[in-house]
């Protein structure tokens, strides 16, 4: 429809050194002056690292018991506003966040660490950062860009991968994002840095760590309920979290809940692509201590 035409296949442009598209910069002034509250929880990720999974986990941990209606009546993107988004088909993320009446507010962002509104740091907000290995992250991003016309044209896989390596992705290079947040975490104990691969390997263990970071102590029964409800198959079939209510996404091309696996990159990378990627990765990740697993 006409509503979504202006969103269609937006061009990438350089925004303070980071590739962006207009729907994440149009509302920039309001984003930068956004007033965080001390109990806000920021969920920060590079796109396709497991944002929705962790958002739903946090939502259930905080509101699963007290507001069961919330789970059946509000899609996840209204429960957990996407801070920098300004898609016009929804109110901008800053407005959605301001309208939230529940506490704590859960707020999602894909911003690289240097772009986070300063009030989140001033208020000492807790941040849950989720990172995913570069190869699977690239594959997931490729399929997302194919099915979502609000993202730039992906081109073919080889083309896309080259662009991923060049850092010409919405929200910039993967490596700058994961290492920028990793460095920030070294001096800020309010940042809980998680890995998608760890979540897949042992969701319960990661759930326990998350609860201890958040200062929550749910019963065993409740934790099991959260783990069960947020399993891939259950989220895939849950219209309130699977994005089936979003007009710009074409699930016939690829569903939002696509595979949910570690190692799907092996079905996409040729041997030559993988070698070239590894070579490039070594150079870019030379000066950081953050370590990723591409298999579990
Ligand atoms: P794939 O495309 O590899 O399947 P985001 O929410 O940051 O956009 O990330 C989306 C990715 O997380 C997709 O990866 C999606 O399938 C995966 N995902 C979402 N929910 C999941 C879950 N409960 N368990 C495992 N993976 C999940």
TrEMBL record:
It holds the Pfam family Sulfotransfer_1. One of its GO terms (cellular component) is cytoplasm. InterPro entries: P-loop_NTPase, Sulfotransferase_dom. It comes from the Eukaryota. It is found in: Cytoplasm. Keywords: Catecholamine metabolism, Cytoplasm, Transferase. GO terms for biological process: catecholamine metabolic process; xenobiotic metabolic process. The keyword Cytoplasm applies. GO terms for molecular function: transferase activity. Its EC number is 2.8.2.-. The keyword Aminoacyl-tRNA synthetase does not apply. PANTHER family: SULFOTRANSFERASE SULT. Belongs to the sulfotransferase 1 family. This is Sulfotransferase. The lineage of its organism: Eukaryota, Metazoa, Chordata, Craniata, Vertebrata.
């Amino acid at each position: 429809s006409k509503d979504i035409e202006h969103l269609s296949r937006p061009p990438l442009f350089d925004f303070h050194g980071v590739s962006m598209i207009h729907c994440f910069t149009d509302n920039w002034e309001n984003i930068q002056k956004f007033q965080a509250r001390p109990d806000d929880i920021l969920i920060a990720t590079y796109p396709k690292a497991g944002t929705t999974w962790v958002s739903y986990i946090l939502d259930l941990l905080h509101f699963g018991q007290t507001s069961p209606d919330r789970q059946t009546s509000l899609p996840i993107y209204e429960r957990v506003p996407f801070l920098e988004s300004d898609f016009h088909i929804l109110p901008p993320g800053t407005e959605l966040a301001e309208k939230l009446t529940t506490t704590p507010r859960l707020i999602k962002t894909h911003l690289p660490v240097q772009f986070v509104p300063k009030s989140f740091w001033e208020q000492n907000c807790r941040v849950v950062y989720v990172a995913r290995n570069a190869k699977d992250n690239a594959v997931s991003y490729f399929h997302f860009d194919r099915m979502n016309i609000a993202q730039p044209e992906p081109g073919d896989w080889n083309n896309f991968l080259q662009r991923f390596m060049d850092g010409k992705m919405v929200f910039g290079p993967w490596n700058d994002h994961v290492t920028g947040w990793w460095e920030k975490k070294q001096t800020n104990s309010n940042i809980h840095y998680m890995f998608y691969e760890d979540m897949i390997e042992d969701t319960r263990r990661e759930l326990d760590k998350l609860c201890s970071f958040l200062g929550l102590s749910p019963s065993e029964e409740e934790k099991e309920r959260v783990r069960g409800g947020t399993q891939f198959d259950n989220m895939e079939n849950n219209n309130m979290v699977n994005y089936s209510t979003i007009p710009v996404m074409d699930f016939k091309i690829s569903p939002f809940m696509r595979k949910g696996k570690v190692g799907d990159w092996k079905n996409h990378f040729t041997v030559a692509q993988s070698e070239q990627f590894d070579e490039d990765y070594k150079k870019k990740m030379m000066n950081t201590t953050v370590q990723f697993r591409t298999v579990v």
